[in-house]
Design brief:
CATH superfamily of the largest domain: Acid Proteases
Structural class: mainly beta
Radius of gyration: 20 Å
Number of domains: 2
Helix content: 10-25%
Largest sheet: 6 strands, antiparallel
Shape: globular
Strand content: 35-45%
Strand order of the largest sheet: 1-11-10-27-28-12
CATH topology of the largest domain: Cathepsin D, subunit A, domain 1
Distance between the termini: 51 Å
Length: 384
């Protein structure tokens, strides 16, 4: 039973111009942060005919060129939160007044006592992500995403948020868009309720991600997709596993030469993972061919001057080739007046998943991605 409620003011979020990377750099904290918290997005992994539809659009903001987040509200009257929309996890959670961790004190927290529609459950949850973790309790309330109101939505209220990553994060919580079978504590997912309450016309959602830090225009559409954000045909790919959004990759090539997945391999399409992740040996081959070398705190960098002559990397999926140019698979940013370039590929850290790839934001930024629950498939088209 939770008897002590900690009330703190919600800080003002910085929506325009500055990202967490900018803020850490200005405070002289970026290098130390990267040294102590090298990016590892993997520990959250434990264990019909084409129809145009605008659906309900939620604008997303670029976070560190590595994540994308938007605004939702919970409760009556509504309390607003910044969340990452994550197709690689399945739970919705936000900080709460029950939490006294430093990360909670510096973020917007849900106040159950201020909502007339809140109901507390007797279930607890603990979630581990690649760069942070949380423990909490489950409750029920009205959740608004874009212009969609979902009544009696189950969500997590954090009790602890250990470590410093969530403290520095510009977002408050996470909204998981994976399948319900992968939800911690058996929680009903947001999109499951959207479907069961018939709040979306089509059982799908779609992501458009801009790929330059601070650039506006990123969005997720619920109930359809936006034809203004892609060119050419949508290529549909059947899911191989309904849990994560998992598909079969035929092969991976560099300049037309197969370097990985010679006999096919499984891949997860994950908006909550920044880079393209793969097994050690194939990724090392790709890094070698694109000229990536270890630079800052285990991150693999490339010479920014070599971008015009670097090779294309191609993923063949369901017989269709998806080409990534150097501008698309290299992350570029400025720090202390100098330009840095980082490889958009990284190795799989967990041996249990040695054959699995993750197509993160580097891939999704290049190819408009439609997550079609109704037909158990993914759709890809070249983003514009």
């Amino acid at each position: 039973m939770l008897t002590h409620f900690h009330s703190y003011p919600c800080r003002v979020k910085l929506f325009k111009g500055k990202t967490v990377r900018n803020i850490l750099a200005e405070r002289g904290l970026l290098e130390d942060f990267l040294k102590k918290h090298p990016y590892n997005p993997l520990s959250k992994y434990r264990g019909p005919s084409q129809q145009d539809s605008s659906g309900s659009t939620e604008s997303l903001l670029n976070y560190l060129d590595l994540s994308y987040y938007g605004t939702i509200s919970i409760g009556t009257p509504p309390q607003s939160f910044i969340v990452i929309f994550d197709t690689g996890s399945s739970n919705l959670w936000v900080p709460s007044g029950y939490c006294s961790s430093p990360a909670c004190r510096d973020h917007c927290k849900f106040n159950p006592q201020a909502s007339s529609t809140f109901r507390l459950s007797n279930k607890y949850l603990a979630i581990q992500y690649g760069t942070g973790r949380m423990t909490g309790v489950l409750g029920y309330d009205t959740v608004r995403v874009s212009n969609i109101d979902i009544t009696h939505q189950e969500f997590g209220l954090s009790i602890t948020e250990p470590g410093s990553f969530l403290y520095y994060a510009e977002f408050d919580g996470i909204l998981g868009l994976g399948y319900a079978d992968y939800a911690i504590a058996g929680a009903t997912t947001v999109f499951e309720n959207m479907m069961s309450e018939h709040l979306v016309e089509q059982f799908m959602f779609a992501f458009y991600l801009t790929r330059h830090e601070g650039q506006s225009g990123s969005e997720v559409v619920f109930g359809g997709f936006d034809p203004n954000h892609y060119t050419g045909n949508i290529n549909w790919v059947p899911l191989t596993v309904e849990g994560y959004w998992q598909i079969l990759v035929d092969n991976v090539k560099v300049n037309g030469q197969v370097v990985a997945c010679e006999s096919g391999c499984q891949a997860i399409v994950d908006t909550g993972t920044s880079l393209i992740i793969g097994p050690v040996s194939p990724i090392q081959r790709i890094q070698h061919k694109i000229g990536a070398e270890a630079q800052l705190y285990s991150m693999l960098g490339v010479d920014c001057g070599n971008l015009p002559t670097m090779p294309y990397v191609t993923f063949t999926i369901n017989g269709i080739e998806y080409h990534l140019s150097p501008d698309q698979y290299v992350l570029q940013y400025n720090y202390h007046g100098h330009k840095y370039c980082q490889s958009g590929f990284s190795t799989m850290a967990l041996s249990d998943y040695e054959d699995l790839w993750i197509l993160g934001d580097v891939f999704i930024g290049a190819y408009y991605s439609i997550f079609d629950r109704g037909n158990k498939r993914m759709g890809f088209a070249r983003a514009v």
